[in-house]
Amino acid sequence: MFGVVIASIFAAIMSTADSQLLVAASALVRDIYEKMIHRKKEISQQKLVLISRWFVVLLVIAALLLGFVAEQLVFWLVLFAWAGLGAAFGPTSILALYWRGVTRAGVISGIITGALTVIIWNRVDYLKDMMYELVPAFALSFLVTWLVSLFTRKAENNDEIFNQIINLNQKPK
Questions:
Q1: For the chain, what is the radius of gyration of the CA atoms?
Q2: Average pLDDT score over residue span 148-171
Q3: Rounded to whole angstroms, how far apart are CA atoms 81 and 12?
Q4: Which of 8, 18, 96, 107 is 20–30 Å from 54 (CA)?
Q5: What are the φ and ψ backbone dihedral angles of 70, each rounded to 5 degrees?
Q6: Nearest CA to 102 among 164, 154, 142, 141?
Q7: Residue 57 confidence class, pLDDT cut points 50, 70, 90
Q8: Helix extents (H) in 70-103
């Protein structure tokens, strides 16, 4: 049983890693190679696939080198990135899903507040040592989203859209 659990964990890791590598390689080939380097030439699909594969190999090598050389840096960058994502989008997503009163202005304000709080908290030494930046940023983002939504006008069809979303999640009788 333990082997199945470990295999499942590694399968999930591999699935995520290969998807991220393919997306990154495709973006590099499309946005840099195809649109900037060979703008005027028509490139065959077969050549694009070959170049994408080489980019995947280069990205794997770069990721492995970065992982071995800067292990601590990678850990802290990932922690910082998740704090930013969690603080910016977590509270706004929760409120948008469970409260009819959330407004566009509230969501935008909450996203900006969460992201900025993470950045500022991480840059001020005595705050950084106090606690993980996600905690205060999440709370502030939630509070700002709620307060701004209370004082701004919601869209006219807000209740209708909310009901449609709720009805999508209910099973038919």
A1: 22
A2: 75
A3: 20
A4: 8
A5: -125, 55
A6: 154
A7: very high
A8: 71-98
The pLDDT tens digits of the residues spanning 29-44 come to 888 887 777 777 787 8
Indicate whether 165 pLDDT > 80. Answer: no
Q: How many helices (H) and strands (E) does the chain have?
A: 7, 0
Which ranges of 99-157 does DSSP label H, i.e. alpha helix? Answer: 104-123, 125-130, 134-151
Determine the pLDDT at residue 30. Answer: 85
For residue 48, what are the CA distances in angstroms to 27, 28, 96, 131?
12, 11, 41, 47
Name the amino acid, one letter, at 132. Answer: Y
User: Tokens representing 161?
Assistant: 């859209």
Instruction: Using the Cα atoms of residue 19, residue 25, residue 26 and residue 28 in order, give the sign of their dihedral.
Output: positive
pTM: 0.64
- Residue 103 DSSP class: -
